[in-house]
Design goal:
16 helices; 5-stranded mixed sheet; 533 residues; globular; single chain; alpha/beta
Length: 533
């Protein structure tokens, strides 16, 4: 039987599964609403991985903590739904300085591989991740032989720092990190970014209701202990993640009512042919037989219905509109490379991908990148790029030459994924003017559209941007204008959710990453800066 732990939730003692993430455990206990939005709307977890900030609450006196990044075993007091406790209740954090040869940010398959291969070459390695455990989203709660070996390989040789965020750059080869207990200034010779990806979450009516999660968010909460036995679940969106999530929630005892893939059947057929050349991936697809039986193509969500939580979701498909009563919905339209830290450090991006060469080196000579942040391609691509990046960061370029052919095959497969599951144009018309676009600040799609039109009508900078700097400058100016006039992108998540969505909807470019890169209290910013040497 799972170990239980009694904690204080809004002044009441509640027994929860000690090993679960706090977000999953609270949802399992019936606490679906974790906060109220700027206009008082009920909100609950969405991404399950620390990007959306919708599960933020006060934990042990520290405000703005994300419940998905804490286990029940690590907390004592939680205040939700607008209840609060003073940040002064939290104990002060120590400030330390450490040094290493290679700093790796992100402990998913790519980061684990990079840390292992840098350590193999005798380098002092520090591995950092915001989550409480190693493995990232792909290996969250996975105890199979491959993930177990990857964890074991770094645990013995690497200085692992979980529940730790990158806060701000301190100059060349220096970063400030923060955990609940301490502020760390890290000096290093090389940096490997394995920051993974976020989900493309597109606005549609009702998408902000509690229990409407991202696909990856539902998967993360399920792996993190969310009780789904007997629950009715609808999954919708795009990409291979749909089937993987359907398999995870079904194994947890949920009833999967539908798996709605927005891509047409012809795209999936072509992708299936490509899988024939990858026996392991083909076998994995056949392993999702139960999910495939529920699959609908050219189908997508148009509305989520409910009050304080989801009660039904409306799908559009070959049969027209269909309303399915459900307890949870997982909705995501593919993955978006997370290049925020890379951009903050001056690395060049191709769209949202971190640009790298054959050695996984970015445009900044001492920074390397691997995994989904360089392009969406799955675990095999991530592990291979991680090995190359870790070795290259340690000064060994032999793996880059030896694995060049395998790397090209993985990149080609990633390109097939992108083409097969590209979001269709109809998804741009799902939102109504009153539909929320920016979840943090309750900014509607209509408000964003009006701000943009006003700017285009009166501001010569917008009218002339195409002639002066091209479409990219105009798109970036449109994003800045909507921020200034509506606060879209200025909330807790800093555009992590609405930025990619608005980029897909109307082409505005959200690239203005600023420090601090994670929400922190003033003590993390006020700590004395290290003097460059």
């Amino acid at each position: 039987m799972a170990e239980r732990r009694a904690i204080d939730v809004d002044g009441k003692r509640v027994e929860l599964d000690a090993a679960s993430t706090l977000a999953a455990a609270l949802a399992s206990s019936g606490a679906h609403v974790l906060r109220r939005s700027a206009h008082g709307e009920a909100r609950g977890p969405v991404c399950g991985m620390g990007s959306c900030y919708e599960c933020r609450c006060t934990i042990d006196g520290a405000e703005q903590e994300r419940a998905c990044l804490h286990t029940v075993a690590s907390v004592s007091r939680v205040a939700t739904r607008g209840a609060s406790a003073r940040s002064a209740d939290a104990p002060p954090r120590a400030h330390r300085r450490i040094a290493c040869d290679v700093l790796v940010v992100g402990a998913g398959p790519a980061g684990l591989a990079a840390a292992e291969h840098a350590a193999r070459r005798g380098k002092r390695v520090v591995l950092v991740d915001e989550n409480p455990g190693l493995g990232g989203q792909i290996w969250r709660a996975d105890r199979g032989p491959e993930s177990a070996r990857a964890r074991a390989a770094v645990s013995a040789k690497v200085d692992v720092r979980t529940e730790t965020s990158v806060v701000l750059p301190l100059g060349e080869r220096r970063l400030r990190l923060a955990s609940r207990d301490e502020v760390l200034d890290v000096r290093f010779d090389a940096l490997v970014l394995a920051t993974g990806a976020t989900e493309l979450l597109l606005p549609f009516p009702g998408w902000t209701l509690p229990n409407v999660l991202g696909l990856g968010g539902l998967q993360a909460l399920a792996k993190g202990g969310l009780e789904l036995a007997g629950k009715r679940v609808v999954l919708a969106g795009s990409g291979p993640l749909l089937l993987a999530v359907a398999d995870v929630v079904a194994r947890k005892g949920a009833s999967v009512l539908a798996v709605a893939e927005q891509a047409p059947r012809a795209n999936l057929a072509r992708f299936g042919v490509a899988l024939a050349a990858r026996p392991a991936k083909l076998a994995q697809a056949f392993g999702f037989a139960g999910a495939l039986a529920k699959l609908r193509t050219s189908a997508w969500p148009v509305e989520a219905v409910g009050g304080e939580r989801l009660s039904a979701i409306v799908l559009r498909g070959a049969r027209g509109l269909e309303t399915l009563e459900c307890d949870y919905a997982g909705v995501g339209f593919g993955l978006v490379p997370n290049g925020r830290l890379a951009a903050a450090l001056g690395c060049a991006l191709d769209g949202r991908r971190v640009r790298v060469d054959a050695e996984q080196r970015t445009s900044v000579a001492w920074i390397f990148a691997a995994g989904e942040c360089t392009g969406i391609g799955g675990k095999d691509k991530a592990r291979l790029e991680g090995e190359i990046a870790g070795a290259s960061a340690a000064g060994d370029l032999e793996p880059a030459r030896r694995l060049a052919g395998a790397r090209e095959r993985e990149l080609a497969f990633a390109d097939r994924i992108e083409r097969a599951f590209a979001p269709r144009a109809e998804l741009r018309t799902l939102a109504r003017p009153e539909t929320i676009a920016c979840r943090c600040e309750d900014v509607t799609c209509g408000e964003v559209a009006r701000a943009t039109e006003l700017a285009r009508g009166v501001d010569a900078d917008v009218r002339d941007a195409g002639a002066r700097g091209g479409a990219a400058d105009a798109a970036a100016f449109a994003w800045r204008t909507s921020k200034l006039q509506t606060r879209a992108g200025m909330g807790a998540c800093q555009g992590r959710v609405c930025g990619p969505a608005l980029e897909f909807l109307d082409g505005r470019t959200a690239r203005d990453v600023r420090a601090p890169l994670a929400p922190v209290t003033l003590d993390a910013l006020a700590a004395p800066m290290e003097t460059p040497q």
